[in-house]
Amino acid sequence: MQKKNTWDLGRLYAAAALFATLLGTTGCYKDLLPDEQDHLSNNMNYTTENFVAVLGKTNVFINVFNADYSTQPLTFTLENIRSGDKQPAPILRQQIDTRQWKTWYSGFEKTIDEIMSKTFVTKRPILDIRENSGEIIFWNVDSNTVAYGKYFFDVRVKNKAGERVFSNLTLDVRRPHPYEPYTIDDITGIQKPLASGGLVKAHDARNVRDYMQRLLPKDSIDVFFVKTGTAKNTVSVRFFNPDSTVIPLTVFDMQRWDSLYYYSPQAATRVKFGFNQRFDTDSTIVTWDIPSPFPVLTDVSGGLDMAQVGFDFKRVNFGRQEAGYVMVRFAIQEPGEWTVAVKFRQKPKFEDD
């Protein structure tokens, strides 16, 4: 028994000696390794050199800088901001009130006040840059503050390995888009050709028929956006026949008005359409209170977030029940009271046959 214990003790001493040897060897190899050096890649670049910004909204340009394998963190600064005639444009560095998020928007907020409580106001320059990502931001201003046209700027990028300047990046400031899809050319200020976006159509339509039983395609349904006031932020929806007579909302007998939703790609969830829904006395207008902008994340989503909603009905078509809908897709960028007017080019039939 004593002999076994002596043998085990010998094994323990041998293992300890081996560990000490390995530790010493590792230390020697570590001493042989070169110190880690910071790196500023020659291949880093802005993926675009032209930033198109629309007045009247916040323009956020994300994922626009490729750092390649440069050592992080990088530091970005704006320099040499100038107008189209290459004169200094200090107005773009003017500090203004900006509304930013202090916590995430979930899409489940129950009031506009709850949405606004998730934001805060802070001063930032009109043309801004994220210090460590290089993302460009052009904050919400109007044409009285910044004239539309082209501006130029440089960006200095640096880390401990050095620095590099990206020169002559372009900021292309264009006329506001009060709503989307917008029918006015934001460069010329002239209405686009009717066949090229000068007239908004229904996003989709299904089983909408005229009095001759012909299916009415979505291209035969026009959508107009009319600003009717500025007292509050609202959106109303109305439907019209070709002769401009009003279609009562009661024809949409399958519509669940209290549970109208749209999908927000940014929030990755279905969002309730507006707040405090109400009808006028003859049920031809339905109105909601809305945040501005609407949808909430439309101005920071690059146009991905838009309210896409369908208005559902059913009718009996010679003994067969048909379910149909008219769908619109839009965003409201400018504060105020807005009406979305949906007008059919052929008179639709909602009565049973």
From TrEMBL:
Pfam families: DUF5007
InterPro entries in the cross-refs: DUF5007
Protein name: DUF5007 domain-containing protein
Lineage: Bacteria, Pseudomonadati, Bacteroidota, Chitinophagia, Chitinophagales
